[in-house]
Amino acid sequence: MIPQKDATRVPTGSVTGDAINVFRGFCMGAADTVPGVSGGTVALILGHYDRLIAAISHVDREAIGLVRDGRWRSFADKLDLRFTLALAIGIVVGIGSLAGLMHHLLLHRMNETMAVFFGLVLASVWVVRRNVSRWSIGPVVGAVVGIAVALAISRIPASHGEISLVYLFVSASIAICAMILPGISGAFVLLLLGVYEPVIGMIKQFFKLNIDFAMIMRLSVFTFGCAFGLLAFSRLLNYLLRHHHNLTMATLIGLMIGSIARLWPLQAVTPETADLELKFQEHVFISPAQYDGSLVMLAALALVAAIVVLVADRVTRHATVEG
């Protein structure tokens, strides 16, 4: 089995290693601000996906026991805490610093922005394919299933109905699973399930200190749903990566391929949703003749983005070998 580019090969316990992991988290956070792009995809590209899933899956009764007994060093080692904290810092900084910029670009330069991410993800599929050492019938079927699942999710009409506490819990559990899967945007899943706007609204009101008991209850249910989904699904995913690596990686690659369709640059906002907020706008594919911008520019942006990924991968592999 050819392992993923191993994040443990980065100098651990050092300022350099911490800086690299903060940068990895920053890239994940930046990706999570883009509809159709998953932070899990970035983790897979940058080589720390397996390590991240393993760290999350180690939150269990033993870890709780270590905290109860005051064995903090063992707890930190078990959860790879220095790595996960550096990653978390980067994710928060990435989301906080780029969310506004990405919103502006998607609103005013949607086609060009999609072209960049189309090139990034397309090249990333080529890079990540090396994680499958042998493309037998199993991995091929897994990749096809991954493509079908990603395409099916992207075509589900968004729901805008009233939500119960049970539905909120289930939605949170599903969305957090999507966030750690390459190719599926957790925020997009929340939008499809009809809970994106209510949750974002509650968070905004919370930070404005407009707080009441009902809001605390709903935010608590959502948080517990996220925690449940993350801990439960990460264990399954960690098991699959350890015992069925080729099949699992091929399925994840299929999810990435399926997500590319949502990033196709030749899209336009439907007239019916053009006046809505960005998160509620719907897009349709258009032909090159219908696009009133520069097709050459779109192609150039996608090509440059793809080259950046390929060059970065080459530099990273050489640095890993030499290190």
TrEMBL record:
Transmembrane segments: 81-101, 113-129, 135-153, 165-193, 213-233, 294-312
Chain coiled-coil ranges: none
Superkingdom of origin: Bacteria
Keyword Transcription: no
Keywords: Membrane, Transmembrane, Transmembrane helix
Keyword Ribosomal protein: no
PANTHER family recorded: INTEGRAL MEMBRANE PROTEIN, POLYPRENYL-PHOSPHATE TRANSPORTER
Name this protein carries in UniProt: DUF368 domain-containing protein
Species this protein is from: Aporhodopirellula aestuarii
